[in-house]
Amino acid sequence: MSLDAIGPVSRVFFSQRLRLHYVDWGNPDAPPLLLVHGGRDHCRNWDWVATALRHDYHVICPDLRGHGDSSWAPSGHYSMADYVYDLVQLIHQQSLAPVSIIAHSLGGNIALRTTGVFPEMVRKLVAIEGLGPGPRTKVAADRKPVAERIRGWVEEMRAQAGRQPRRYASIEQAFARMQEANPHLSAAQARHLTEQGVNQNEDGTYTWKFDPYVRLWPPYDMTREAIADLWGRITCPTLLVHGTESWATNPAEDGRAGYFRNARVLGIEKAGHWVHHDRLSVFLEAIREFLGKSGQESA
After folding, report:
1. 42-62: pLDDT as tens digits
2. b/e map of 162-197 (b: 16 or more CB within 10 Å)?
3. Of 60, 71, 72, 136, which sits with the fewest C-beta atoms within 10 Å of its C-beta?
């Protein structure tokens, strides 16, 4: 049976007592490549990218804690340190280092921090809008007193505890919401992402797989300066990708690219936040050039 005829295999690993899920696209003798999704997303959002790259790489796509088919944190608290630990554990347990990583949004943020802490573990890194909000937004958040941040977080957690996850009467209703959230998606893309991203409840309705608490950002995090210091510790070639029609700012223009030792910025036209969905063929062409078609050029 050809590689193209085989879909990904679901596997699990454990991190901080949580049962975390990932899919393995096979080809274990090829160079390893991790694809890390963004917030409120799931590992199967990479299916088109994984299918295109599986012949040259051993592609592994994890579900972040609280997302997809991974366990939810019992406390409902999701810190960046925990996400980093999970990614490091997957790399460690599966002996993937040095690994190449392509990561989107929240996943990009996690991958950038992980690489800054463990630069020897990563061969090449592609971060799709993983730098977070622009510098001005971060400055405003950093100026809030700690007490104000924690009070706000307590109120948000309490409010979230009183909410019920939205239920959709049918797959079609969830599909319509997916299309509304990203108008760049084709109908086929939106339907696939919906079908892979929902669970059916006992009463027949559907809800998204992610834990609603992942919407809440912890009350405190690393400072902007500390995060930038981690970016400066990254030694591997890095590609910072952004969509020109996204809310994210251009890191070459806002100054953040300057913190990296060896980074190139790529803006993709007619793409929003989900660049790898919105302009798949353009994205893949750039990725193959950056990583090296066979994966060996990354050495």
Report:
1. 999 999 999 999 999 999 999
2. eeeeeebeeeeebbeebbeeeebbeeebbbbbbebb
3. 136
Helix (H, G, I), strand (E, B) or coil at 71: coil
Do β-strands 58-62 and 18-24 pair in parallel, antiparallel, or remain unpaired?
Answer: antiparallel
Domains and CATH numbers, the chain: 3-165+211-298 (3.40.50.1820)
Residues linked to residue 59 through DSSP beta bridges, in sequence order: 33
* Other CB atoms within 10 Å distance of the CB of residue 131: 24
Residues 6+ apart with CB under 8 A from 158: none
Q: Tokens 């750039």 map to which residue?
A: 286
What is the rounded CA–CA span in Å between residue 23 and residue 65?
A: 14
The pairs formed by 17-20 with CB atoms below 8 angstroms and a separation of 24 or more are 18/65, 18/70, 18/71, 18/73, 18/86, 19/70, 19/71, 20/62, 20/63, 20/65, 20/70, 20/71, 20/86, 20/90
Tell me the pLDDT tens digit for each residue of 254-296.
Answer: 999 999 999 999 999 999 999 999 999 999 999 999 999 544 4
Q: In the chain, pLDDT over 70 holds for what percent of residues?
A: 94
Structure tokens at 219: 């009350």
Helix, coil or strand: residue 176: helix
Q: Return the number of other C-beta atoms located less than 10 Å from residue 199's C-beta.
A: 11
CB within 8 Å of 238: residues ≥ 6 apart: 115, 124, 125, 126, 127, 260, 262, 263, 264
State the amino acid at position 64 in one-letter form. L
The C-alpha R_g of the chain, in whole angstroms, comes to: 19
pLDDT band at 220 (very low <50, low <70, confident <90, very high): confident
